[in-house]
Write a structure and sequence with these properties.
The structure holds two protein chains of two kinds.
Chain A: H1 8-19, E1 32-37, E2 44-52, E3 55-64, H2 67-80, H3 85-88, H4 93-99, H5 109-124
Antiparallel strand pairs in A: 1-2, 2-3
Helix pairs in contact in A: 1-2, 2-5
Chain B: E1 20-29, E2 40-44, E3 49-51, H1 58-72, E4 78-84, H2 88-92, E5 100-109, H3 116-129, E6 134-139, E7 147-150, E8 163-168, E9 173-177, H4 181-192, E10 196-201, E11 217-220, H5 223-229, E12 236-240, H6 245-255, E13 262-265, H7 269-281, H8 286-289, E14 292-293, H9 305-320
Parallel strand pairs in B: 9-10, 9-12, 10-11, 12-13, 13-14
Antiparallel strand pairs in B: 1-2, 1-5, 2-3, 4-5, 6-7, 6-8
Helix pairs in contact in B: 4-9, 5-6
The chains are: A alpha+beta, B alpha/beta.
Chain lengths: 129, 325
């Protein structure tokens, strides 16, 4: 994995997912949701899940956020669908950066990590099976 | 004035101790007037003067004299005052405006619950509070009582001869996305212009009451959702001052298809072109994208936050006054 600040593959992944994000938009009748914000840069995201601890059946996000944050949310909501809560909570930054095909520069890591933290809180809020 | 619309509210502290007032309204001008048609002055029976039908001088003085005379007559509640501006001496030295003004004087009994002017003004306030562009209709020829009506409900054909229709617009609401320094200056200036301000940001350290004591609302959350929930109309102006695409794009996607009267976005011309290109690729039309004023504000040359705020407010005043901006 290469550092992403300017890396070609990383940049293409981020821009493509920003322009064509998957799972963007509200999830009606969500079983659990969590909101997160980066207080200084202003990224705001809400992750909504349907399912229970044994099985996440649907995952969507809403965000007013930068391209990296939206790309990260798109990847994570794709990844978590079909997982149990225990497995979902194991998704980490290593997987995320590998999926982004590069590590964000130090000053932007928080943009990528915000959806991961928010997803974890949403997963923790899922009802028991 | 008695309130921001120039309407009379008997409970207004500015009218305390007054039993009666004369409401003077500028209803016509054959030459360029220094104030808009509909400009108002209230003359209290005790001598109190609030507002003005011109920017001052001899005309307002004549209106005050006529109001005093109206109080002395028990048989008249209304008078149409015609004032010539053709002062011979002033003409000689080129310091006259020329023409004729007409000012409608109406006597108002502040203690009478059934006073027709108070009733009409109360009705107008209710309509305006609901965001409805409103008119106070005064049949001058027939002498019938004034009444208030929503402008959309007015039927011009039924108004009759010499009827004055005083159109009153609800205040402008500025929805300001981005709680930075320009927004802070702007909310202070907007208050003086009697505009409502709503500050929107996702950052709770920026969008604080401490930073925006003059704002009518300070809302924290996802800006596109907050703006999307606002009941926008032509009297709503949306100002994108965050200088950050993360807020600009989602908010523009919403407001470009709403009937707001003004959309402005902070940033360079080049940035504006890029933003338009991106939204065009998503299906927005050139006509929709042309609604975005970017760079925002009139080009006054200033760079300081307060100077930029002034240029933005100048553009908004120009747009809503029907001038090209």
């Amino acid at each position: 994995m290469t550092a992403g600040g300017g890396g070609g593959a990383y940049r293409r992944v981020v821009i493509d997912l920003f322009r064509h994000p998957k799972n963007r938009g509200p999830l009606p009748d969500a079983s659990a949701s969590a909101e997160g914000a980066n207080p200084l840069c202003g990224d705001r995201i809400r992750v909504e899940l349907r399912g229970d601890h044994s099985h996440v059946t649907e995952a969507r996000f809403s965000a007013d956020a930068c391209a990296l944050c939206i790309a990260s949310a798109s990847l994570l909501t794709e990844r978590v669908r079909g997982m149990s809560a225990d497995d979902a909570l194991k998704i980490d930054a290593v997987w995320l950066f590998a999926s982004l095909e590069g590590e964000p520069p130090p000053g932007r890591r928080k943009c990528a990590i915000l959806p991961l933290d928010t997803l974890r809180r949403a997963v923790a809020a899922l009802p028991p099976a | 004035m008695a309130n921001k619309y120039g309407l009379i509210d008997p409970a207004d502290p500015a009218l305390r101790d007054e039993s009666e007032v004369a409401l003077a309204t500028l209803v016509s001008a054959t030459a360029g007037s220094s104030k808009k048609i509909g400009a108002k002055m209230i003359v209290g029976k005790s001598g109190r003067i609030i507002g003005g039908v011109t920017i001052g001088g001899c005309v307002d003085a004549q209106v005050v004299e006529a109001a005093d005379a109206l109080f002395d007559k028990d048989d008249a509640d209304r008078r149409l005052l015609s004032i010539s501006l053709d002062d011979d001496e002033a003409w000689e030295i080129g310091l006259t405006c020329g023409g004729t003004l007409e000012v409608l004087l109406t006597r108002v009994d502040l203690g009478a619950a059934d006073d027709p002017t108070i009733a009409a003004h109360r009705q107008a306030m209710e309509l305006l509070s609901a965001g409805e562009p409103t008119a106070i209709v005064t049949p001058i020829q027939s002498g019938a009582a004034s009444y208030a009506a929503a402008i959309d409900a007015l039927d011009d054909a039924s108004l009759g001869d010499r009827t004055f229709v005083d159109r009153i617009a609800p205040p402008l609401t500025l929805v300001i996305v981005g709680a930075g320094q320009i927004a802070m200056s702007l909310t202070r200036m907007a208050r003086e212009l009697e505009m409502r301000t709503v500050i929107v940001d996702g950052r709770d350290r920026y969008a604080t009451r401490e930073r925006f004591p003059e704002a009518d609302d300070v809302l924290i959350g996802m800006p596109s959702e907050i703006v999307g929930a606002i009941d926008a109309n032509r009297r709503t102006a949306v100002l994108l001052l965050a200088h950050d695409y993360k807020y600009e794009l989602p908010v523009l996607r919403d407001v470009l298809r709403k009937p707001v009267g003004y959309i402005g976005m902070l940033g360079s011309r080049k940035r504006g072109v890029a933003m338009r290109d991106l939204l065009r690729s998503e299906g927005f039309t050139d006509e929709e994208l042309a609604r975005v004023h970017t760079p925002i504000g009139l080009d006054l040359g200033g760079k300081a936050p307060a100077e930029v705020a002034l240029s933005i407010l100048s553009e908004i005043v120009a747009v809503y006054s029907g001038k090209r901006a």
